Amino acid sequence: PLGSVVSKVAVKYTPPPPNWSMMGGLPVPEKKEEFYFKFWYDTDKGRFEEPLSEYLDWNSADGCCPACVRRAEADRMLVPTLDEKHVTLTYKHVTYTAGDYVY
Question: Phi and psi (nearest 5°) for 88?
């Protein structure tokens, strides 16, 4: 729960060295108020991967975090958009025109 939050910490991206796969088991220096990450876990693929560039280039002054932007895009995708000029309807990144069939 939110009441369990003790303090805010800094989290920064530290790119892995080129030979990271050969360096397993090396000790990691610890700092009390700072954490780092090198990879993120992709649950769909079941593996650690390099983070997406949208997470690395994020500036908190913009007002929206990358997760919020992706969520807003996913919500927009679920709303059909009508283009009256070209007489098309776009839904979930698929454009439909008069005479198209939807199963």
Answer: -130, 160
